[in-house]
Amino acid sequence: MVFTRCYQEGDRIQIVLPEDHFLKIRLDESMEEAAVFGRKGIFEYIIPTGEEKMAYPPKAFSGEAHKVIVEYREKETMPVNLSRNGWL
Does the residue 87 lie in any domain? Predict the structure, then answer.
Protein backbone atom coordinates (compact mmCIF):
# COMPACT_ATOMS: atom_id res chain seq x y z
CA MET A 1 0.00 0.00 0.00
CA VAL A 2 1.24 3.48 -0.79
CA PHE A 3 -0.06 6.71 0.73
CA THR A 4 0.80 9.99 -0.97
CA ARG A 5 0.21 12.67 1.64
CA CYS A 6 1.81 13.77 4.91
CA TYR A 7 0.55 11.99 7.99
CA GLN A 8 -1.53 14.16 10.31
CA GLU A 9 -2.07 13.87 14.06
CA GLY A 10 -4.65 11.15 14.71
CA ASP A 11 -3.90 9.20 11.51
CA ARG A 12 -3.84 5.44 11.85
CA ILE A 13 -3.21 2.36 9.79
CA GLN A 14 -5.96 -0.23 10.10
CA ILE A 15 -5.90 -3.65 8.48
CA VAL A 16 -9.10 -5.70 8.62
CA LEU A 17 -9.35 -9.42 7.82
CA PRO A 18 -12.25 -11.82 8.41
CA GLU A 19 -10.72 -13.50 11.50
CA ASP A 20 -7.79 -13.58 13.92
CA HIS A 21 -4.58 -13.47 11.90
CA PHE A 22 -0.82 -13.16 11.95
CA LEU A 23 0.89 -10.57 9.77
CA LYS A 24 4.39 -9.72 8.74
CA ILE A 25 4.26 -5.94 8.48
CA ARG A 26 6.54 -3.02 7.71
CA LEU A 27 4.86 0.29 8.54
CA ASP A 28 7.59 2.58 7.18
CA GLU A 29 10.57 2.14 4.88
CA SER A 30 12.94 3.33 7.63
CA MET A 31 11.76 0.62 10.04
CA GLU A 32 12.28 -3.13 10.18
CA GLU A 33 9.47 -5.59 9.53
CA ALA A 34 7.72 -7.12 12.51
CA ALA A 35 5.43 -10.02 13.33
CA VAL A 36 2.04 -8.96 14.69
CA PHE A 37 -1.27 -10.59 15.57
CA GLY A 38 -4.61 -9.05 14.67
CA ARG A 39 -7.15 -10.10 17.28
CA LYS A 40 -10.73 -10.35 15.97
CA GLY A 41 -9.39 -9.69 12.47
CA ILE A 42 -8.13 -6.16 13.18
CA PHE A 43 -4.64 -4.70 13.41
CA GLU A 44 -4.54 -0.99 14.14
CA TYR A 45 -1.53 1.29 14.55
CA ILE A 46 -1.76 4.97 15.47
CA ILE A 47 0.86 7.01 13.64
CA PRO A 48 3.13 8.61 16.25
CA THR A 49 3.46 12.39 16.36
CA GLY A 50 5.22 14.90 18.58
CA GLU A 51 7.19 13.39 21.46
CA GLU A 52 5.95 9.87 20.64
CA LYS A 53 7.73 10.06 17.28
CA MET A 54 11.11 10.59 18.99
CA ALA A 55 11.34 6.84 19.73
CA TYR A 56 11.45 6.03 15.98
CA PRO A 57 14.11 6.55 13.30
CA PRO A 58 14.38 10.24 12.34
CA LYS A 59 12.77 9.79 8.90
CA ALA A 60 10.00 7.44 10.06
CA PHE A 61 6.48 8.57 9.16
CA SER A 62 7.87 11.73 7.49
CA GLY A 63 7.40 13.11 4.00
CA GLU A 64 4.58 12.85 1.49
CA ALA A 65 4.98 9.23 0.33
CA HIS A 66 4.58 6.24 2.64
CA LYS A 67 4.91 2.57 1.72
CA VAL A 68 3.30 0.00 4.01
CA ILE A 69 4.04 -3.67 3.35
CA VAL A 70 1.70 -6.32 4.76
CA GLU A 71 1.86 -10.08 4.34
CA TYR A 72 -0.71 -12.48 5.74
CA ARG A 73 1.07 -15.35 7.52
CA GLU A 74 0.12 -18.66 9.01
CA LYS A 75 1.15 -19.13 12.64
CA GLU A 76 3.60 -21.88 11.73
CA THR A 77 5.56 -19.57 9.42
CA MET A 78 6.04 -16.69 11.85
CA PRO A 79 9.46 -15.92 13.36
CA VAL A 80 10.18 -17.73 16.61
CA ASN A 81 12.14 -14.84 18.17
CA LEU A 82 9.47 -12.17 18.61
CA SER A 83 11.91 -10.05 20.66
CA ARG A 84 13.21 -8.80 17.28
CA ASN A 85 10.03 -6.74 16.99
CA GLY A 86 11.83 -3.63 18.22
CA TRP A 87 9.13 -1.07 17.46
CA LEU A 88 6.10 -2.77 18.99
Answer: no
- Side chain identity, residue 66: H
Nearest CA-CA partner of 62 in 35, 36, 27, 32 = 27
Q: How many domains are there within the chain?
A: 1
Burial of 25 (0-12, 13-18, 19+ CB in 10 A): buried
pLDDT in tens, 49-79: 999 999 899 999 999 999 999 988 776 565 5
**Whole-prediction pTM:** 0.77
Q: Is the dihedral of CA 45, 41, 35, 3 positive or negative?
A: negative
Q: Which domain holds residue 11?
A: 2-76
